[in-house]
Protein 1
Amino acid sequence: MDTTADGRTPVEKFKHISLFEAFKNDDTALGAVAALFTTSKFTAGSFVMREGEPGDTMYIIKTGTVEIVKKTMQGDPYTVAQLSSDKDMFFGELALIDDESRSAGVVCTTDCEFYVLARSKFLELGDAHPSIGLAVTRELARSVSARLRKANADIITLFDALVGEVAESGGLGE
């Protein structure tokens, strides 16, 4: 049977993934979800996805650690976050709901294995099990909403800092 590094089955692992919170105690529902995932392995140093590339898959970290990487305006990479399997983390979930390019890159800092869900399988889940699909979609919406609220707060913070810097330097000059 397929298990994680700590011996958990996919259903046991998925009980701890926030996207599946609404039915975490329903092994039948989690089993239906787990059946849609494939697995994929990547070696340390390899990119799972690159910022700007098209994508249609979401990943749950089965084993290993990754870094979420963004590029500056000058094209220099910087690490936004580090995610690991022991924290029951996932990424790429926006690809389940839109056709946009990847908003960040993901690079493996260790050898990794992932549970992978394609958008087409997610849509099939919603058709076959509407209540499960709706529950996952609601969690996706909550996640996106929280990120949007944080981004808005960050923009205000940056704007305030910029205004302060301009004021301290004597203004814009005329």
Note: Residues 10-137 form a domain with the Jelly Rolls fold (CATH 2.60.120.10).
Protein 2
Amino acid sequence: MAAAFTAPVAIVVLLFVFDWRFGLAAVACAVAAFGVEAAGFSNKSITDKMRRHLVNQERMTNATVGYVRGMPVVTGPYL
């Protein structure tokens, strides 16, 4: 967890060390990404679509796991 926080900060600091314009571009992109994410979470239709997507993704994952676990039963010990 410490690396998840330290690595991006270290990269931005290194970008500022090598060239301040790279560091400024990285910070601007991060701020813009947080702004877009905040706007998405405040929009009710987007959060509803995301909820439906995650529910469907969970259903597909469960179906895939069930299919893979059932393979030895169908194929038998010969494969």
Note: The chain has two domains: 1-42, 44-73.
Protein 3
Amino acid sequence: MLWSKSLETGIALIDEQHKELFRQVDILLDPANENRHKESLNFLDRYILKHFGDEQKLQAEAKYPKAAQHKKFHDDYVVVFRKLKEKYLKEGPSPANNMEINKTVVGWLKDHILVHDKEFAAYYKSLK
């Protein structure tokens, strides 16, 4: 999963966390790293909570009008991710599970960053 400039929000903390999420997903999607998949899933589980919390804190401080909606996206994603993690840990790596992770994790991250996080970033930067 390649990071690109188009994914940058311009908020340093958020961008660095997004880059780390991408690095961890790369580990997860690489069959050569199969021995690290469980570790990566556990890291992602903890890290998305930290990342979402940091985003939500910024949104609260900025009095972002769509903060509740954004939090709902985060909460819904945690549920989806944990179901996916549980399935992966139970069944192990397979082409089908890897494809589901790719679609669910990569697709969601890119969509969320490009649409919702960028929208917040524009609002946040307009306050400066």
Note: The mean pLDDT is 91.
